[in-house]
Amino acid sequence: MLEPPNKELPPIPGKRYFTIGEVAELCDVKPHVLRYWEGEFEQLRPDKRRGNRRYYQRQDVMVVRQIRALLYEQGFTIGGARQQLTGGEAKQDQIRSRLLIRQTISELEEVLQVLRG
């Protein structure tokens, strides 16, 4: 399997938009690989502007790094990585829902104490 050299990725600068070349450097992958991944992963949808130029946001760069880790470091196939990303989002939604429910219960208990007091 062709694997990019194992090196630490640079920090993501505090910019709003990144070009495909910048994302390629930040994630240590080639631009054609990014274009291919756009077709394979629905989570990766950069903004397209004049002349079909791609502009990635910080969250897109983080998704690219996650995809890269799944494929190159953890050895997943494209299908397996896609499934991991989809399952991960569902799990995060479930965790957020539980936290929201706990917070709501806590707030309602506080209101109940005020009403009883």
Plain-language structure description:
There is one protein chain. The protein is mainly α and 117 residues long. The protein has a domain of 68 residues: Multidrug-efflux Transporter Regulator, Chain: A, Domain 2. The chain is 62% helix and 5% strand. The longest helix has 39 residues. It starts with 19 loop residues before the first helix and ends with a helix.
Compressed to H and E, one letter per element, the order equals: HHEEHH
CATH architecture designation of the domain at 20-87: Orthogonal Bundle
Percent range for β-strand residues: 5-15%
Mean pLDDT: 87
Alpha plus pi helix count: 4
Low-confidence stretches: 1-5
| Helical residues, percent | 55-70%
**What do we call the CATH topology of the domain at 20-87?**
Multidrug-efflux Transporter Regulator, Chain: A, Domain 2
What is the compact description of this entry?
This protein is mostly helical and 117 residues long. It has helices at 20-27, 31-40, 58-73, 78-116; strands spanning 47-49, 53-55.
Characteristic terms for this protein:
117 residues; mainly alpha; Multidrug-efflux Transporter Regulator, Chain: A, Domain 2; two-stranded antiparallel ribbon; 2 strands
